[in-house]
Amino acid sequence: MGCSSSKGENVVAKPEPATKEQCQEPKPCLYWFRGSPPSSATHEIALMCLGKDGFDTKEVDLYKGEHKAEAYLKINAAGQVPALTHGDFQISESRAIQQLIVRHSKKCELLGGADLKTQAKVQQAMYYEAGSVNTKIVSIVVPVIFGGELDEEKMKETLMPVFSAVDTMLSESKFMGGDCMSIVDINMVHNLGLFSLLGEEKVKTVFEHHKHICAWFKNVMMCEEYKKCVECTAETYPGGQSEKVLNMTKICMEC
């Protein structure tokens, strides 16, 4: 018949071999917002661990309510940033994402390295930073961001004991979790970045009255790998938390 071959050849076309791009696993995608401290910390950690070509980003503008859009709620039902997707895998909560990225990249010194006791110290510091520092700074600063009046007395009552406690912790170690920089330090830097929205003079006061916090901040920003990630993020996403960190660096160096 007309559609047969007299030589009995296979008329089914052979599939083209997959290209290198088709064989590659899709990149993880970080959903974040430049004005969010946990988001910015996570973005910087991803840059440190994965490199700028190792992940994709999609910025979710909280001021425009994009975190409440139906499409985003399918990624993170809590409607918060950051979130991370990798193929069908989805995860939220900044510190969980950060730990996943660090372990995937095998830069485990950012989690305390191989020593179990050092790891435990980093975990202890991380729980303290997230539960006792970040939450209290957020409670004072975020209402002001959205138009509220700053209660100076409440701010002092709430935050000055926190800064004093952190200063005491840092009198015993170079970084928040011990003698090596970890993801806790990066998150703590961004807590101060959030606090700086109340005014640069308030950050300067913290540095001037808490010498161990000032020395710690300088040590963190002396890490060239981290500083380059902050600078890259600030340049690419101006007006965000990374830019605030660079501004604080200038203030700290003058103290």
Notes on the protein architecture:
With 255 residues, the protein is of the alpha+beta class. Helix content is 56%, strand content 6%. The protein folds into two domains: 22-108, Glutaredoxin (3-Layer(aba) Sandwich); 112-253, Up-down Bundle (Glutathione S-transferase Yfyf (Class Pi), Chain A, domain 2), CATH 1.20.1050. It has a four-stranded mixed sheet, covered by helices on one side. It is globular. The termini are far apart. Residues 1-15 have low confidence and may be disordered.
Give the ordered list of helices and strands. HEHEHEEHHHHHHHH
Strand line-up of the largest beta sheet: 2-1-3-4
Please tell me what the overall shape is. globular
Ends distance: 91 Å
**Can you tell me the residue ranges where pLDDT is under 50 for at least 5 consecutive residues?**
1-15
Percent of residues in helices: 55-70%
What Rg, in angstroms, do the CA atoms define? Answer: 23 Å
User: Architecture of the largest domain, according to CATH?
Assistant: Up-down Bundle
Task: Identify the CATH class of the largest domain.
Answer: Mainly Alpha
Largest sheet: 4 strands, mixed
Number of helices: 11
**How many discrete domains?**
2
Mean pLDDT: 91
CATH fold category name of the largest domain: Glutathione S-transferase Yfyf (Class Pi), Chain A, domain 2
Tally the beta strands.
4
Helix/strand-derived class? alpha+beta
Our estimate of the beta-strand percent is: 5-15%
